[in-house]
Model the fold of this input.
Amino acid sequence: MDTIVEASNTLVANNDELVRLPAELKEVEDRMNQMKRAATRNARLLKQEEQRKNDLIVYLAHDLKTPLTSVIGYLSLLRDEPHISDELRTKYLSISLEKAERLEELINEFFEITRFNLSEQTLEISQLNLTRMLEQIIFEFQPMFSEKNLQCTLHAAPDIKIKCDANKMERVFDNLIRNAINYSFENSTIEIHVNTERTGVSILFRNHGNTIPEEKLECIFEQFYRLDASRTTRTGGAGLGLAIAKEIVELHQGTIKAASENEAIEFTVYLPMLP
Done:
């Protein structure tokens, strides 16, 4: 017992040193070292997640300041130049509105982080027409498609019915299409394929963009993870979209997977038939 108690100090030490016990306590040594490795791994993951979250806050704080400075600057010009031309007035107002909308998006991301960490997700199951939902979402994204001259094609049988939480699944599809837009080459096509199976339905989202390395695919569904570490002001998000999508899909007892090769990016959502 004295030997095991002494070894417990090694177990809780903040280093990679493993427990060493006499041969007759080999089984106990193995179990203690399993606990040590698990604790070390969890601590490392927690530290990485905390670092990503801290980086995110720094990025968001910087991005909040940028559009706010522009809004203040252009509104000040409008105030201080009473004889400004109508053309310039319209231009300054348009820029101010664009920057204010971007500011709203970033503020919403702060709220999203809080809600994601504090709320417990529950499902409100109902039957819906999956085909119609996807058609509606695609239609609502037309302005964003136009900005990069993208086409979006839906390959699905008419009136596919599934049972799910409609609001939450809409959010999943919204996040996946938005992600596809952000990481698509201009003048390319986003494809959505819906396949019904005996036990469920599979929805494939494919876009054409820079191939995602394997090591990044392994982290892509983690909270606060961003493919673009430089975080562009225009497309920068909180890094929560795919993490939230994964949580919602798994609440439906489904799966979501990512794959990328030859400048193609695919996300596949599988939803089982719910009773």
